[in-house]
Every structure is written in structure tokens, then in C-alpha cells.
Amino acid sequence: MSTVIKGGTIVTADLSYPADVLIEDGRIAAIGQGLSGDKVLDATGCLIMPGGIDPHTHLEMPFMGTYSADDFESGTRAALAGGTTMVVDFALPSPGQGLMDALKMWDNKSGRAHCDYSYHMAVTWWGQQVFDEMAEVVDRGITSFKHFMAYKGALMVNDDELFASFRRVGDLGGLAMVHAENGDVVAELSARLLAEGNTGPEGHAYSRPPQVEGEATNRAIMIADMAGVPLYVVHTSCEDSHEAIRRARQHGKRVWGEPLIQHLVLDESEYFNADWDHAARRVMSPPFRNKLHQDSLWAGLQSGSLSVVATDHCAFTTQQKRTGIGDFTKIPNGTGGLEDRMPLLWTHGVGTGRLTPNEFVAVTSTNIAKILNLYPKKGAVLVGADADLVIWDPKAEKVITSASQQSAIDYNVFEGMKVTGLPRYTLTRGVVAVADGKVDSREGHGEFVGREARPAVNRALSAWKELTAPRPVERSGIPASGV
Ligand code: URP
Ligand code: ZN
Ligand code: ZN
Ligand code: ZN
């Protein structure tokens, strides 16, 4: 059965034009005027865009003594409800665990996904087994490797491990990723704050000032440059980190920065709310920042120094957050956002004139697809591409509330915010999963999307490495050794 989308305006990262879209066998079969199909979706007054891709989620992740509450079932259902048609989750080996073993665990969870998904692999420890298995992971279609420079004593890796892993990623044609915060300084500041009686959630924000992020981002950039590997900096939250990324890009380094929708629309005042639950629910790393940092992130998206907008969706219930009563370092770190990323970015980005609709598509989908080598299967409205599409009604409105959300948790950090711009339909490989705000998707419909190593970028970097590699200088007349 074929489906045709009629009456809308196609909006891609580089073009806007009126056309119909014909879908057959889950892919875009034709784009043009006057197309017909078995089933017709009315897109009058709407924009036909590539479905969102969220490059950063943590679904059912073991973390800080618990598991994040949204799994692949509720998480991907929330994604589709908000116009996101693909997520990239982090397979996270516990320290000492093999990478392939961790992958098996993630395969067991992801079978319930409603939309397509891929993985990044986390490097949480270093050793011969990790080095060896990284090649197998790449063969499985997972080409991006995340490193935590924070969470000391748990997931954090040190600089020697970072350098060794980055070199391996570079040799494998992969992409290095970092959670950039100086974990040693955070641990030190946290201990001091607790000792001084700062035990509430605001202590979390005080323990992670922008400098810890700026320092780590700059360090990761320099280590990646020495290793000859492209670098993706997750959850860039502040000017200090953005400045390092901007500078690196101006110097021709292959570095990308990823602000989160949370950091773009919520600020640090949340942590000073008198209600403990309110503040703790918003504890995540890095923490929300002040207006100056938010302005920097928006400017980065506008100018292109920051490339994509993600959620880092890692949702915990109020009950889980309460583990940290009396000690902010025990509050599970993470917030949700999968259902709200696209409507919020449209409202605060396009609705305010900060982003054009085409830039919106670039930062929510196409740039991500290109960086992760998913393009044009994903992130495109082109003949042959997967029909992962969102038919976007720029005038539709709602007020965000946990009462009607797909996420499994009991609150929403964006509660009460009004959004203008919502999906009329969300299609995953041609199947309508959301229609007029109603989710009717199928658990298990989602498929794993493997990715190839990124030969172009890495070949350029390795050519440069080869040209500048250390070589002994040929000398004649070497003086006799000794005196
Ligand atoms: O606080 C956060 N961001 N939790 C999820 C894990 C991570 O650091 O990305
Ligand atoms: Zn992180
Ligand atoms: Zn509240
Ligand atoms: Zn994360």
C-alpha cells in the first residue's frame, strides 16, 4: 500500500518548496506535483520535514544505583509523539565489562523500540580487551565512542586512557565523543560543599561551574587533535565550552558541539526553587546556566559554531530523585525531553526569529545524520530516503504537562510551558505513528540502524597526520659520542 502526503511545503536543511511526497515500502518513492497513492495524508498548512533525530538518549540505563525510568518502549513512543523518528542511545559497559557484552544487553532492551535507533559505545575503562573489541563494535555498525571526563570513581577515564582510546577511534575511522567536565575538580568542590552544609540540589550547580566544562572541552579538543580524530562534544551548556569549540572550528579542527533543549530554555534559577523536589528533578550534568550562557548557545546555533540540538533524555521519577535527600551528589543526574525537544525548539527558535525553518531541520535532523553518517537514509526528504517524516503544523498549540506525556515519569521539567508548532502526523518508515496528537505506534517496529566508519573525515585527518608525523632528521657529520 502506498501513501501520499498532499498539500504541504517540503522543508529541508537547504530548501523550502511545495510538493507532494509518495511513499512506498517505507521509503520516499517520488516527490512532485499531482502525485497519487492508496492513502492520502492532508498536509494543508503544514511543513513536511525529515523526522527529528535525537543523537543523545539514555533509555533504561543503569546509573547512580538505579535505572533511568524511560526504556526503549516509553522513550521512543515519547520521541514519535514529539516528531522525533530516530534516537541514538549509549551502550554503557560497566567498568571491567566487555563492549560486546554491553551491546548484547542493549540489544535485549531495544527490541521494544517504536522508532528506529542506533547506538554509540561508551568507553568507561581501558585495557587490551576494550582496544580489541572496539574493532568488533565498528563492524557491528557502531562507529562513535563516548568518553566521560566526569563521574570520578565510576565512569570517568583519565587523560592517558582518553588519548589511547582517541587514537584507536581515529585508526578505526570512528568519531570520538566526550562528556566534558573536569571530574577531579567536581569531586573536590562537591566534598567541600557537603562539608560546609550545602547538601541541597543547588549544591549540584555550585559543584559544576562553567569553568569545569570549559577546561575539559578544551583538553578533549587538544587531545583529539593530537590523536588525529574528529570530536563531538555532548551537552555543550555554556560559553566556556562553546568558546573552545568555536576556536577549534576556526582553526580547522573537526569538532562539533551539541547543546540540549533543556539548556536552551531553562536556567539555573530552577535550582534555587524552595521546593526540594522541583530543584532535584532538574539536577543534570552539566547543570542549567544563566542567561549569558543561554544566549551564547543560541548564537552558536545561529552562526553554525554549534551543530545539533539533543535531549540527553535520562529520566528519573521523583522517588528516584529523593535518593539524594541530604546529599546532592546522590541525586540521579538526568532530565527528560524527548517529546518536547522539537516543539520547544520550534517555539523558542523559529517562533522568535532566531532560527529559520531550514536551520531548525538542520540542527534537529540533517546535521546529526551527516555527522553520524546516517545521511541520506535518515535526515533527508529525497527519493530513496527512509520515510521518517514529520508533517509539522506550525500553528498548533499546547501547554506541556506531565498529565498527558508519553514518558513514564511523574513530572515534566517543562511543565506549564506553551508551545506553538506540533506534529500533525509523524511517520516512521512510512507508517503513521502519530496523528493529530494521538499516538498509535507499534512496540517493536523500530529497527537498529548500523553506520559505516567515516572515511572522508578520517582520511583527511590521517593524511595530515602522515604529513606531520615525526621523522628522524637525516644528518651527516654526527659528532663522536662522549667527551
Ligand atoms: O545528567 C546527565 N546528563 N545524565 C545522563 C548521563 C550523562 O552524563 O550524559
Ligand atoms: Zn553526559
Ligand atoms: Zn515545582
Ligand atoms: Zn548523556
Automatic annotation (TrEMBL):
Gene3D superfamilies assigned to the protein according to its UniProt record, in alphabetical order: Metal-dependent hydrolases, Urease, subunit C, domain 1
Enzyme superclass (EC): hydrolase
A family per Pfam: Amidohydro_1
InterPro entries: Amidohydro-rel, Hydantoinase/dihydroPyrase, Metal-dep_hydrolase_composite, Metal_Hydrolase, Metallo-dep_Hydrolases_sf
Top-rank taxon: Bacteria
Entry function: Catalyzes the hydrolysis of dihydropyrimidines and of the structurally related DL-5-mono-substituted hydantoins, to produce N-carbamoyl-D-amino acids.
Family: Belongs to the metallo-dependent hydrolases superfamily. Hydantoinase/dihydropyrimidinase family.
Name recorded for this polypeptide: D-hydantoinase/dihydropyrimidinase
Lineage of producing organism: Bacteria, Pseudomonadati, Pseudomonadota, Alphaproteobacteria, Rhodobacterales
